[in-house]
Protein 1
Amino acid sequence: MQQLAQLVTALRAIVGHDGVIDGAAALLTYEADGCVMDLHAPNLVVLPRSSSQTGAVVKLAVAAGVPVVARGAGTGLSGGATPIHGGIVIATTRMDKVLEVDTRNKRALVQPGVINWELSQHLANYGYAFMPDPSSQKACTLGGNIANNSGGPHCLKYGMTTNHVLALRTVLPNGELIWTGNGSVDTVGYDLAGVMTGSEGMFGIVTEAWVRMTRLPESLRVVLALFPDIPSASQTVSTIIARGLLPAALEMMDKLAIKAVNGMYKLGLPESAGSALLIEIDGVEEGLDDLLRDVTQICRDHGAIEVRPATTPAEQAQVWAARKNAFGAMGRLSPSYYLVDTVVPRTKLPSILAHVGDVSRDFHLPIANVFHAGDGNLHPLILFDRRDRAQLERALGAATEILKESVRLGGVVSGEHGIGVEKRDYMDILFTTADLAAMAGLRRSFDPRELFNPGKVFPARKGCGELAELRQNAIAANEIGEVPAGTWL
Amino acid sequence: MSDISVLISTDMSQCQRYTVHGVVPVRVAVPQTSADVSVLINYAAHQGWRVVAWGGGTHQLIGAPPTAVDLVVVTTALNRVLQHEPNDLTISVEAGMTMGALRTYLAQHGQMLPVDPALPDQTTIGGMIATATDGPRRANYGILRDMMIGIGVVEVNGQPSRAGGMVVKNVSGFDMMKLYHGSFGTLAVIVSANFKLIPIPPVTATVIATFAQSDQALAYITDVMESQLTPVTCELLDATLLQRIGVTGEWGVALAYEGPQAAVDRHMTELPQRAQIHGGATTLFYNETHIQCWQTIADASAVEHLAVGELVLRWATLPAFVDELVQRIGDLGQSLGGNPQIHARASIGVGYVRVTGLDANTQNQWFEALPEAVWVATNATNLDTYWHAPVGGLDVMLRIRDEFDPQRRFNPGRFVV
Ligand SMILES: Cc1cc2nc3c(=O)[nH]c(=O)nc-3n(C[C@H](O)[C@H](O)[C@H](O)COP(=O)(O)OP(=O)(O)OC[C@H]3O[C@@H](n4cnc5c(N)ncnc54)[C@H](O)[C@@H]3O)c2cc1C
C-alpha cells in the first residue's frame, strides 16, 4: 500500500494531480473494454499528455515491476485493454491531437488518442481520408486501431490499418522512446512498425504515428441489394470476388439485422428479405457505371429481389449509417449480445453461415449476422441475456462452435478484433506450439519481463514465458548437439 | 525426406557457382522439400555451420560480405504451388518459385500478384520477401509485405513454424510476415508464403511524358498525385533509361494505368493534358510496348551482376524531398564521378541510383553522401560500412536477432544487425 502511495506521488509529479486516477469507483470504468467477459480493475490509471510523459510513466512502472496496459477508447472486443493482472492503465485520452497534415507527402502525424472518425473528418477538408474505418470509428482511437490492426468495410479494397501506418513513435517496455522510421516507405533494419501494428499493446505504447492519407476517390456508387435468403447473398459475394470486380466495400446483413436497423433508421427495407448486401464501388467516374451494371447483374443472377441504388450523398450516408450502427441497433432486440469475429476463405461463406444457422438452433439463441462479407470476415452476434447464467454459458458454447468450424473450413479465429483474453485459448487450435513459440520469441525481444499487457494472446495454459523458454532451450540444445536431429519442441 | 549426404555437395565448381558476395561456401545443398530444409538446417545447427539461403542469386550483392559461409541452401527446387484457391483469390507457394513462373501460372487464371521485380525469371518469391524487393507498381499496390497473408519458415535449429493463414484478413497472432519481410535471411529460412491476389485488369496502357528539366517532371508528378487520377506506377526516369525504352528526352515520367476501358481512356487523355501544362511531350504505349517498357524499367534496379567499381543504392525519402535528392545525386556525379543513373518511384519517394567505375574509397563517399540509402549493392568487399544506422530501435533489433539466431549463424555479418 505504501509502495502504491509512493508511486502515485511520483506519477503525479509527471502528469499532474488530475492525471492519475486512484479512486476505487473511478477505476471501475477501466475494468473492461467492450468485451465484458473477464473483468479486472487496474490499481491506477494514468493520463499522460505527451510521448515524454508516457516514457517517464513507463520507467516508473517497470522499475516497480508493475504491469502496464495501454487503453484508447476501450471499444475493443477481445479484452485487449482489460488489465487482467491489474497494474497501471495508461489511457491516451489526453493525447488527442492531429499534430500535422502533410498533403504533399500524403501523411498525417497523430497522437494515439485521436478518434478515427475525427481524423477522417479533418482530412476530408483536404480531400483525403484515413482509410481504415471500423464500424466503431466514431469512438475508437488511432492507438487502438494500430494495436489491433483494425479493419473496416473499406479494408476490402484499401487494406487494414497496417497498410496505412508509416512510422510509429513508441515507448518500449524498458522506457526507451523510439521512432521506427521517419515516415518514408522503407527503413533500415527489421520492420518494427510492421510488427508493432497488431501487437495488441504488448510490444510498446504508441505515442505518435505517421499514418498514410489516401486521396478521396473521384466518384462512388452505392447499392443495396436484397435477397430472399442468406445462401443467395453469400453466393453473390463469392461471385463478385471471383469475377474480380474489386468493390471498395461489400457488407452483408441478415434478416434479424435488417429488422433491427429498419426500426432505427427507417430504411423501409422489406422485412421479408432474408439478407441484404451493401456494395460500394469507387474510382474515377469513367467506367464506374459499367462496373455497377456488372455488379447489379450478378445480384440479379443470384436471385436478388430488389437492387436499390443509393444515389445522393444523403442516401448513401443513411445506408452506411445503418450498417455501421447495426450493432447498436441490436439493443432493440436483446439485452446483450456476444459479437464473434472470425474469418473463412470467401468461398466458404455459404457453409459457415449455414453452420451459424445450425448453431443458433442447437443452442436456442438467436444469432444476427452483420459483417464484412467481401473479406470473408463474419460477425455473428449471439443475442442473449447476460443476467441469465444458463444463457451466458450457451452463448459461450455457441461462439466456440462457430470458431472451431471456421478453422475447420480453413479460416482463422480473428479477422480484426484481436485475440486479447477472449480468444487466447483458441490460439492452439490454429497454431502449433512451435508457431506460438516463435511469436513468444518476438514478444520477449520487446518485453523480456512481460510487463506490457501481460496475459494476452498466448493460451492461459501455455503462456508467453513458458513458450519462449521452450524455444530457447530447443535452439540451444540443437546447437550443442544434445538433441538428436529431428527432435524439436 | 532425403538423406542429408545426398543433399550436400562440396564439389568445388558447384561451391564457386554459389559464391556469396566474394565468399566461396564450403558446401552447397539443394533441398527438394521443406522437410529437407528442416533436416539440413538442424544438421547445420549441430555442426555450428554458418548458413546462407540462396534463391535466384539475384540479390546476393546487397549488404556486407558474409564473415564465413559453411553452407549455402539453394531453394530453387522448392518451386511448387502448394495451394491455389482461384475463387478466393489466394495462393500458397514454395519460396523457391520464381516470380516469372508464378506470373505465368497465375495468368492462366486471369490473376496476378502485382509486384514486378527485376529479372523475374530468376528472382524467387523467398528472395523477394527477404530483401523487400519492389517494382514499379509499388506506387499503387505496395510490395509483397502488403500482400503476404501467411508464411512458413525453418528456424535456426531446423524447427519449422508458420504464421498467418489463407484468408485475406487476419489478426490471429502477431504479424510474423512483417518480421521476416526485409530481414535479409538473418532470422530463418523462408520456405513458403501465402498471398492475396487480384484479377488481371482488362486493359492496361502507359503514358511517357518527357521534360527538359527534372523539376518540371517532378512538378508534373506532384500534380498527378494531388489529382484523383489513380495511375498504378509513377516513375521518374533519366535520359539513359528513357533511351532504353525507346524515347528521347532529358527526363521522363512513366505512368501506367490498368482497369476498365473507359477509365483507361480517361487516364490516357488527362495524363498527357496535364503533362503539357508542365511543358512535357507525351508518348503512349499499349500492349507489347507497354509490357516491354515496364520490364525494362523494372530491370533497371537489377543487381545480380555488377561490374568492378559499380555501386547500386536503393534510397527512400519523402516524396517532397525527391527533387532535392535528385539534384544532390547530380551534384555528386560532378564532384565524385560515377556517371549516376537515376530512376525513382517518385510518388512514394523510393528510388535507385547506379554509379560505375569507382574505387572503394569513392564508393564509401557516395554511400556517406546519401544517408537516404536503405541498402547498397556492390562487389567491393572492403567498404567502410554497408548499412546506415536504423532511424531507431537498434537495441530491440539486436534482441530480436538474439532470440531468433543467438549464434549469428544465418547470413553472419551481412545485415545491419
Ligand atoms: C460497435 C463496435 C463495432 C466495431 N467494429 C469494428 C470494425 O469494424 N473493425 C474492427 O477492426 N474493429 C471493430 N471494433 C473493435 C474496436 O473498436 C477496435 O479494435 C478499435 O481499434 C479499438 O480501439 P480503442 O481505441 O477502443 O482501443 P482499446 O479498446 O482501448 O484498446 C484496444 C487494444 O489496443 C491497445 N492500445 C490502445 N492504445 C494503444 C496505444 N497507444 N499503444 C499501444 N497499444 C494501445 C490496448 O492495450 C488494447 O490491447 C468494433 C467495436 C465495437 C464496440
Protein 2
Amino acid sequence: MSDISFVRTDMLPEQEPPATTVGFVGWARANLFSSPLNAILSILSIVAVLFVLSVILPWAFMSSWNATSLTDCREQIAAAYGPDHHGACWAVIKDRWVQLVFGFYPPYPIDGTAHLGSPPEGAWPAYFRPIATFVLILTAVAPVLFDKLPRKMLLITAVFPFLMPWMMWGGTFWNPVGAMLGFGIGYLAYRFIAPIAGSLAGVIAAALLPIIWWLFLMGGFASTMQSIIALDIPTVNSRKFGGFTVSIFIGVVAIVGSLPLGIILALGRQSDLLIVKALCVGFIEFIRGVPLITLLFVASTLLNIFLPPGTEFDIILRVLIMVTLFASAYMAEVVRGGLAALPRGQYEAADALGLDYWKAQRLIIMPQALKISIPGIVSTFIGIFKDTTLVSIIAILDPLGLTAGIRANAQWNGIYWELFAFIAFVFFIFCFSMSRYSMYLERKLKTSH
Amino acid sequence: MSELATERQIDRSKMHVGSDVAIQINNMNKWYGAFHVLRDINLTVNEGERIVVAGPSGSGKSTLIRCINRLEEHQQGDIIVDGTELTSDLKNIDKVRREVGMCFQHFNLFPHLTILENCTLAPIWVRKTPRKEAEEIAMHFLEKVKIPEQADKYPGQLSGGQQQRVAIARSLCMKPRIMLFDEPTSALDPEMIKEVLDTMIELAEEGMTMICVTHEMGFARQVANRVIFMDQGQIVEQNEPEEFFNNPKSDRTKLFLSQILGH
Ligand SMILES: Nc1ncnc2c1ncn2[C@@H]1O[C@H](COP(=O)(O)OP(=O)(O)O)[C@@H](O)[C@H]1O
Ligand SMILES: [Mg+2]
C-alpha cells in the first residue's frame, strides 16, 4: 500500500464553535473590532452616541409635565432637579394638545361658529368629525395594506376619497355624490365613444367630460338635489383647519391622489401618441423643476389673478390640488422606473395572449412595475407627508404654523425645543410606520425564491 | 444535435396536412428604420403543417414569425391568418392573436402569478371563460405537459424546461389553431430540451399547425413536413426535411447545414 491511502475509522463528533466567534463577543469582533481602524471608529462612535444620550435623556425625562406656564415649569424643574438642570417642559404639549391635533376645528360644528365652551344641546362628542374622518381613513386603508381583511372593505376604500372631504368641510351630501358621478360620466363616455370614434377620442372624452361636469355642472346639481332632498351637515371654514388634522388631511389626499395620477402620467410618458406624451413630459418636467413652495405661493396668491373676481376658491382645496400635482409628478417618475425595469418579454407575452393595452397594464405590467417601485413609492409618500409642513409658510396652521402662535402667548413665550421635538416625534411615528410597512410588503410580494 | 433527443415512437396518424390555408403571406417586406429586415416573403401554410424555420442568427426568423401575430408590424405586402388580414385594425389583430399561440425563447411567464394563474389569465380576461372552467382547462393542459403538481408554484420556483412547458400550456389554454415557437429550447440545458421537444411532438401528433424557429435539426427531420431556410431576410430554400437535409440546393444552405450539424 502507498502512503496516500487513507481510510477513516472513527467519525468526528460535532463540536461547539470557539466562544470568540459566537454570541455577543463573536458579533462584536466581527462587526466592531475587525481591524484597528474599525476599532477606533467603533469606539469614537460609541463615545459620540453616549455623549448625545447623556444630554438628551436627562433633558427629556427629568422634565415637567404639569405646569401652567413656562416660568411655572422652570420653577418646578429647579425645585426637583436643582437650579442648573435643563429639563424639558412637556407641559406645553399637555396644555396645547387639543390645538396641536385639531387646530381650530370647532369641536361641535352646529352653525359654522366654533363652540369652544360647553357642548350645545344634542351635540355629538367633541371633535366627532375629524376623529370619524381619521377612523374612516384607517378603515379605508386597512384592506389595501393587509389582504387578509375581507375584500368587501374595499368598498369603503372606494368611497372614502369622496366622503373624507365632505366629512371635514361639511355641506350637502350631494357634493360627494356629484363628485362620484363625474367618474361615472368618464367611464360611460369611454364606453360609448371609444367603440364609435376610436380609443383616443374615448380617452379624451373620458378626461374632458368629467372635468366639465365638476367645474361647471356639479355645483348646480348638488344645490338642486339639496333643495329636493336636504342632506347636509354644518360647514366648517377652511381657515379653521389646523394642527395634525390638516397635515394628515393634506397628506392623505396627496398620497391617495398622486398614485393613480402618477401611474397615468407614467403611462402617458411612454405612450405612442405624440401629443399625450408631450403633455405628460411637459407637466412632469415643469413640476419637478419648480419648488413646492413656489407652487404653494401660486396657489395662495397668484391664482386669484387668473380667477374671475369674486370667485371663492377654497385655500385648502387649492393647496390640496397643488400638493397632489406636485407629488404625482414625482410618483410618475418612480413608476416609470418600475416600468423600465420590466423586460420587453412581459409586454410581448401579454400581447401574444390577446390582452388589450389596459388589461395588459392592469394584470401584467402594473402589478410588477409597482412592486419593483415600492421603495420609491413609499419614499415619495413619506416625502409628501413631510412636505405638508411647508403649508405653514402660506399661513395654514399646521403643527409648525401653530408653534409660532403658541410661543407668542405670554404663558409659553420662550418655549422652543419641546414643541418641535413633539412634532418631530409624531411625524417620525407616521413616516417610520410607512417605511416598515414597505419593507413588510416587499418581503411578502417576493415570488422568486 | 442531428439526432432527436427522444426515443419515443412518433405517431404520424393525425399529422396530415389539410387543404385549408392557415397562413398566407404575400410579397411581404419589413424594415427596421432603414434596415430591410424581411425581403419579399411569400409563404403559404396549410392547416396541420409543421414548419421548421432555420437560418443563421440575425437572418430575420424571429421577425418573420412575430409578424404573424403582429408583435411586429410589416410595411408592405399582406399577411392573412385564418382568413383575417393583419392591418392596423385592432379588431383584426385581436382576432388573430386569439387564434395564434406563441412560445418565446425566454418563456416570458408572468413572475407575479402562479402557474395556474398564468394559464387562466387570458381565458378569463380575453375569452371571458368562467374562472372555474378556465381552471379546469388549465389543469387539463398542465397535465398534458406533465406538471399539474406545480400549479400553485410561481414561475421562479420551476426549472427552465418546466417553465417552457408551462408557457406552452398557457398558450394552449387559449385553444389556438396555430402555434408559433421562437427558439423554445435555445435557453435550456440539454437534459431539459428533451422534455420540451416531447411536448412539442405531442402537439404535432394532435394535428396542430406549427411554425417553429429552432436549431433542433433532429426535430426538423422527424416532425416537420417542411423546412424553410432563411438568410439575410429572405427565404433561401424550402423543402421536405429528407430532401432539405440530404440534398440541399443552395450553397448557403449547405454551408449552414455543415456548420450546424457539426461535421
Ligand atoms: N427592434 C429592432 N430594431 C432594429 N433592428 C432589429 C430589431 N429586432 C431585430 N433587429 C435586427 O433584425 C435582424 C433580424 O433579427 P431577428 O429576426 O431577431 O433574427 P433571428 O431571429 O433570425 O436571429 C437582426 O439583424 C437584428 O439585429
Ligand atoms: Mg431569433
